Amino acid sequence: MPVRAIRSLAFEDLTLGLSELVFKTVTDQDIVGFADISGDQNPIHLNELYASKTRFGQRIAHGLYTASLISAVIGTRLPGPGAIYMSQTLNFKAPVKIGDVVRIHVEVAELIEGRQRARLACECAVDATVVLDGEAWVRVPSRLELMSAA
Question: 120: closest CA among 94, 101, 103, 140?
């Protein structure tokens, strides 16, 4: 992802419909690096000859690599540092290939004030094709919590 300033929003700053949109071009280095970190050495991700014989016809990114792009948005932009993942659902709909530009969209869909929880609608798309969607529940710190952590 391009380097962007980290934005830290407190629970009090969130409103329904608030969203963040980020774009990421998937590289060979991303896929190899994710395989190294995760230990997922499935040849569909790493071996061109093997992948060429699959229904995809070429190497594809790990599904959880694409999901990690959502995590990056949540951890750095919406709501940002201090947010704690509670859960994440993922629906994988289409493959992501080397060179694809993934559009990552995260939007506040529900707020539970008493518990400082936010439900975030999450979607990744390549061109007009949704490749992954789901929702995340996060605990979002208050302004007071953010100030005391700084």
Answer: 140
